Amino acid sequence: MLEGIVRDSMTKQETKSLRRDGYLIANIYGKGLENINAAFKMNEFIKTLKAKETLSFDVSVGGNTFKVVVQEYQKCPITSDLVHVDLMVAQPGVRTTYKVPVKAEGTPIGLKNKGLFIFHKKRVPVKTTLENLPESFTLNIDNLDTGDNILIRDLDLPEGVECFLDPRVPIVGVIKAK
Predict the structure, then answer these.
(1) Do 12 and 78 fall into the same domain?
(2) pTM (2 decimals)?
(3) What is the per-residue burial (b if ≥16 Cβ within 10 Å, else e) of 63-88?
(4) Strands 36-41 and 2-6
(5) What are the CA-CA distances from residue 159 to residues 96, 104, 128 (Å)?
(6) Residues 112, 172 within the same domain
């Protein structure tokens, strides 16, 4: 379980001091809960994210334990270090919006025809409860040729999971190289 501290002060100096000491600034929020301003050791946070097997994971802040999901994060544009993360409390039985990662399997045919494989969406927003939440969407991209895309409507959504994006939005595709 990931251990964190509650941030008492919100000043710029305090935030810079925490970052200098190796902390990642975080906000924890949820439906019907008061927002918690927290900080986690950067290395421990990254180890926890890499080791987790489900989309949600446990954190302990200020003596309370929460099951959270990474909702949003910010990186430094120069160093690509994590700067800030938003964690949403995953409450059982409550329908809310989650961003489910997309994984691609295989090698597209279009790469041999001088095409480039691109991710249009690395995470797909879905509305569901924690119990029905898929871990990821795995797409087979072997048959994609230059100019082909896999769209939102091509996803196999489990029961109780709905995507509110336009069905014509592409997720992955192969474009023609110039």
Answers:
(1) yes
(2) 0.79
(3) eeebebbbbeeeeeeeeeebeebebb
(4) antiparallel
(5) 15, 22, 9
(6) yes
* Residue 166 domain boundaries: 97-176
Q: Per-residue pLDDT tens, the chain, 178 aa: give them.
A: 888 888 888 888 998 898 899 999 999 998 888 899 999 999 999 998 888 888 888 999 988 898 999 888 899 899 988 889 999 998 888 888 888 888 999 888 888 888 899 999 888 999 998 888 888 889 898 888 888 899 998 888 888 889 888 889 999 999 887 7
Tally of domains within the chain: 2
**Does 81 lie in the same domain as 102?**
no
Token digits of residue 50: 């890499």
Both 134 and 59 in a single domain? no
| Claim to verify: residue 47 and residue 80 sit in the same structural domain | yes
